[in-house]
Every structure is written in C-alpha cells, then in structure tokens.
Amino acid sequence: MRWFSHLWNWIWKPSMVHLKSQREIERLRESADLVGRTLAEVARHIEVGTTLRELDAVAEDYIRTHGAEPAFKGYQVGDNVFPNTLCTSVNDAVVHGIPDGYALQDGDLLSIDCGAKLNGYYGDWGYTFAVGTIADEDAALCRATYRALLKGIEQAVAGRRVGDISHAVQSHCEAHGYSVVRDLVGHGIGQSLHEDP
User: Residue 51: phi, psi to the nearest 5?
Assistant: First the structure.
C-alpha cells in the first residue's frame, strides 16, 4: 500500500493540461497500439500454472523487441521504484499489484496494467483476463465493466467533458449493482506517464 499512496500523491499534483497536436496524438496511438499487442502476446501465455513473474518477462521481452521501453519498470516516485514491466492484480486486488511467483489458478480473474514508451510517448492501458472457467458472478462483473467502458467511450467526443465519460461509466456500474473505486479514476498521458486531467 505504501507504493500506491506515494504514487497517488505524486500523480495528482495540480498542473496544466497540455493539449496534444495531431502528430502527438498519432505517437500516442502508436504507443497504445504496442501496449495492446503486448497484452495480446501476454494473453497467449495465460493458463493455469503460469506465474505472474513469467507473464512479466513475456511483456518486457515483447516491448523491448519492438523498439520500446517498459513504461513502469524503474518508474520512481519518491524513494519507491517500481520493479516490473506489468502491474498484475489477481481476484479481489484492485490494481498496481507487483508480479511475483504466484501461479495462476483455474477461476482466477487477472487484471493486467501495461505501459510502453515508444518514440518519446507513452501508452498505458489494462485488461482483465479470465483464467480457465470463472464463476458466473465474475463473468457478470466482466460483462458489466466492459459495457461501462463502451458507455464511457461513447462520451469521449468533441464538446463533451471528462466528467461526462466518468459519469457514464459510474452510472452503468451502479445500475448493475457495482461501485467504482473513487481513488482510481484514471489520468492523462503523453510524454509523461501521468498527466492531467
């Protein structure tokens, strides 16, 4: 928890929002695409018995092989340095877990947060994977959160506010009996891993 609290305090220091040019948006798109391809490669290795550390090694190798750097590995906040390429969180762990020797079990939900720095710009996103056969209630959670994502994307258009996106996500989740973790609501990205808003 110490790592998370230092990270959170550092991320949300007030600053200015940097509006991106079309060129910068394209660079961000390239980095985000690499993150997506990395997650797809990691997904090929997700099975019962695979350790979180093994998945981390797959991700680091894939990112470096494609001319980029892992965004999280070596990321420093105060005296804390993040030691891995991925953040891996299993079952009821919310986010920012550190990959270790835990071997995946049938029925686990595995959330992976991945970031890459390519050509000076960061990509950063995550995905939740089902390991083997998951419980019906876990499948329902995954369906609801995926639909919440789509509701948020629908609001991410010119003329709308960031708050419209979060309102759509939260409203959908709450309508299905879930809640959001208010301390983990996202961040901007660019030439820095964490930017406003």
Answer: -90, 155
Of 79, 111, 66, the C-alpha closest to 92 is 111
Measured distance CA(134)–CA(157) in Å, rounded: 35
List of domains in the chain: 2-134 (3.90.230.10)
Mean pLDDT (10-residue bins), the chain, 197 residues: 48 68 97 98 98 98 98 93 97 94 98 98 97 98 97 96 95 96 86 90
The residues near 134 (Cβ < 8 Å, ≥ 6 apart) are 107, 108, 109, 142
- Total count of residues recorded for the chain: 197
Interatomic CA distance for residues 197 and 188, integer angstroms: 5
Distances (CA, A) of 27 to 34, 37, 120, 186, 190: 11, 15, 8, 20, 9
